[in-house]
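Priority: medium. Attachment 1 of 2:
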């Protein structure tokens, strides 16, 4: 197969599946992973796709605002993992916490020590990850399952938070804009995260540098509800200055 033909097929496959891994492409086309990485680099320069950690994602508009978990799972992996590890430092034995359905929350659940905690979540992935940790009490919201994000949303999920009060909520979002607050791509996710924020004494927003300055489709809350922002060291220094002017506590993780 000619190089141009292989690259054309890669673009077609990425657009069909929305995300694909390097090892998957390597096996499919019977070439080395290094060859695939060179293909993806060239195709990204040509703006035919976007590379991510371990694979590539489509740049064509999706029919749904909800991004598939498989796609989020391979985007900014290193940063999300380090942010999750920093978030764990904010958790102490006996805490009652909320974890949302973000991939960062899943990394956090995976790395949490098996200590006495109560975790309330709307994420199937988080609940399953914590199920093997005997000292952690896991409470799932129930509700309508979104198959792309493996999360529960809707009236039942939202009303679950009316019955509980926790010390800390660990939440991600699609965008944080200094003037317009935090936002989500999906209105249902915005509503349930609003309930999470209202149920907690302290709110930790866990986002990587790429989400600052972004205003997604559905407004969630203004910045004054946030107690701490956990992000990576690639955050723009102008954004840091703006956040400091608003007296927001920024926790930077050095991932480089």
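Attachment 2 of 2:
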């Amino acid at each position: 197969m000619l190089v141009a033909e292989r690259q054309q097929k890669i673009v077609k496959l990425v657009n069909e599946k929305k995300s694909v891994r390097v090892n998957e492409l390597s096996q499919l086309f019977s070439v080395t992973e290094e060859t695939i990485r060179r293909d993806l680099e060239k195709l990204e320069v040509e703006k035919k796709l976007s590379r991510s950690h371990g694979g590539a994602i489509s740049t064509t508009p999706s029919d749904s605002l909800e991004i598939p978990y498989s796609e989020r799972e391979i985007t900014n992996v290193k940063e999300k993992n380090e942010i999750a590890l920093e978030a764990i430092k904010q958790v102490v034995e006996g805490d009652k916490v909320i974890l949302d359905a973000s991939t960062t929350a899943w990394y956090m659940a995976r790395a949490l020590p098996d200590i006495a905690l109560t975790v309330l979540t709307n994420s199937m992935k988080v609940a399953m990850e914590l199920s093997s940790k005997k000292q952690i009490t896991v409470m799932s919201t129930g509700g309508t399952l979104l198959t792309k994000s493996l999360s529960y949303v809707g009236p039942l999920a939202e009303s679950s938070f009316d019955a509980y009060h926790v010390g800390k909520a660990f939440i991600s979002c699609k965008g944080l804009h200094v003037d317009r607050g935090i936002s989500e791509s999906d209105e249902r996710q915005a509503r349930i995260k609003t309930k999470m924020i209202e149920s907690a004494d302290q709110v930790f927003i866990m986002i990587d540098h790429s989400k600052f300055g972004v205003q997604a489709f559905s407004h969630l809350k203004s910045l004054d509800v946030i107690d701490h922002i956990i992000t990576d060291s690639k955050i723009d220094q102008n954004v840091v200055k703006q956040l400091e002017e608003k007296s927001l506590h920024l926790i930077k993780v050095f991932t480089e």
